[in-house]
Design a protein that fits this description.
By secondary structure, this protein is of the alpha/beta class. The chain contains twelve helices and 16 strands. It starts with 5 loop residues before the first strand and ends in a 5-residue tail after the last strand. The structure holds nicotinamide-adenine-dinucleotide. Nicotinamide-adenine-dinucleotide (NAD) binds next to α7. Nicotinamide-adenine-dinucleotide binds next to α7.
Length: 396
């Protein structure tokens, strides 16, 4: 592998932006990727000022169109290898398509975009141009999420009967958007967030956690989308009962009005032989419940294959990917770093003209993003029919 770091460009991230910060830490965490450019703000003058004030030197552009256009004329070793899109949902599709068309890989924030039309365009473009496309479902990057996936998909819990996948927050329990708070303001605006507020913002994380860990798909939903805070156009409380592709059942639920809950994402998977429980606020461990046995707690970096529950063979790639010994806690930024690390591997293969995976096993991909949008679309239809069971569309 070349030791030249990959060049990363940012779309969004100026003036008090939130999620750019964990990304920039994760991008720089291995020394093999670095941010070199950014179109950080919609107003070109402010975008350039923000780039000039960035904590280390980056090339500023007045817009992402300019950044993508200028890339064509740069010498090869200065060209962008991938862009990271950290703008509100309504500014995901356009820069992603333009970057792919210019031969730049895309790592995009979730949810994928605004609606099914955009989602279809993104999938078709990524497939046609064969460009790596990652979707930032952060929590898949926890070692414990990847370990849970191994446990469930190896059949160690038996048949999956029931899943409860949830994401509860309390920060929108009052009308925060009325104060002008930046992150709240666009999240409650259908033109900027899409057709679902809470469902799109965090329900999609709960759905992705279910799909990633179990390998199952949602086939039908019965959805209730509620708005508790008066005057809000979108749901702030989102509850779905789901049928799964193996005949099992699930709840995928989210709320932003549960005072006291911070980033309370978690999953319980009940199988015919046992149950697995994981919570993102304590991301270093999972608990396994087996009939008539003491509960087993597995910590990242401290598991013993062949212990009476785990098989003798646990993939070496999983066992070796602990980064830092157990007991020195990994958390949110490390999860993001694991996603960027895996994406970097695919981008390097792609640049070398080799086959790359981008198969959803290490980070979510554009098809996962499409499923997220299809789920929201189906929930909106079901909710309009007072929660009537509604089928998910066939995969794209
Ligand atoms: N994966 C996660 O855990 C996670 C967490 C938070 C947010 N997100 C997602 O990240 C995205 C951004 O959310 P946020 O909370 O950081 O929002 P934010 O409002 O804090 O930041 C958005 C940034 O985009 C910039 N922007 C808007 N339009 C632009 C344009 N045309 N050109 C350039 N910059 C532009 C804004 O100026 C701002 O810098 C959303 O899609 C959100 O759903 C994901």
């Amino acid at each position: 592998m070349s030791n030249k770091p990959l060049n990363v460009g940012l779309v969004g991230g100026g003036k008090g932006a939130f999620i750019v910060n964990p990304h920039q830490k994760a991008i720089h965490s291995d020394g093999t990727r670095r941010i070199v450019a950014g179109a950080l703000f919609p107003d070109p003058k402010i975008a350039l000022e923000e780039a000039a004030n960035w904590p280390y030197p980056i090339k500023g552009y007045g817009s992402y169109d300019e950044m993508i256009e200028a890339n064509k004329d740069l010498p090869d070793d200065e060209k962008l290898d991938y862009i990271v899109i950290v703008t509100p949902n309504f500014v995901h599709c356009d820069p992603a398509i333009k970057a792919m068309q210019a031969g730049i890989a895309v790592f995009c924030e979730k949810p994928l975009c605004l609606n099914m039309k955009e989602a279809g365009q993104l999938v078709r473009t990524a497939r046609k141009l064969n460009v790596p496309f990652g979707l930032a479902h952060t929590y898949l990057g926890h070692w414990t999420s990847q370990f849970s996936r191994f446990i469930v998909q190896s059949g160690l819990l038996g048949d999956v009967r029931w899943v409860d996948s949830y994401y509860l927050q309390g920060w929108l329990a009052s009308k925060l958007e009325a104060t002008g708070q930046q992150q709240a303001a666009w999240r409650v605006d259908p033109k900027k967030a899409g057709g679902s507020g809470c469902g799109g913002d965090i329900g999609t994380h709960a759905l992705m956690q279910l799909r990633y860990v179990t390998g199952l798909d949602v086939t039908k939903v019965s959805a209730q989308m509620e708005t508790f805070v008066e005057g809000r156009a979108l749901d702030d409380h989102f509850t779905t009962y789901c049928e799964l592709s193996n005949g099992g059942k699930a709840m995928v639920r989210a709320s932003q009005v549960c005072i006291g809950h911070k980033n309370d994402l978690g999953i319980t998977i009940a199988g015919s032989k046992g149950t697995l429980e994981w919570k993102q606020e304590e991301p270093e461990k999972i608990t396994i419940y087996l009939p008539d046995q003491p509960d087993r707690v597995y910590w990242r970096g401290a598991v013993s294959p062949g212990d009476g529950f785990l098989p003798k063979r646990v993939p070496a790639a999983l066992l070796d990917d602990v980064q830092i010994p157990a007991g020195h806690p990994e958390a949110f930024h490390d999860a993001y770093a694991r996603l960027h690390r895996a994406f970097e591997g695919d981008v390097r293969k792609w640049k070398a003209g080799k086959k790359f995976a981008c198969d959803g096993s290490k980070y979510a991909n554009v098809e996962d993003g499409w499923v997220g949008m299809a789920f929201l679309d189906t929930c909106i239809k079901s909710n309009k029919k007072k929660g009537a069971w509604t089928s998910m569309p066939k995969s794209i």
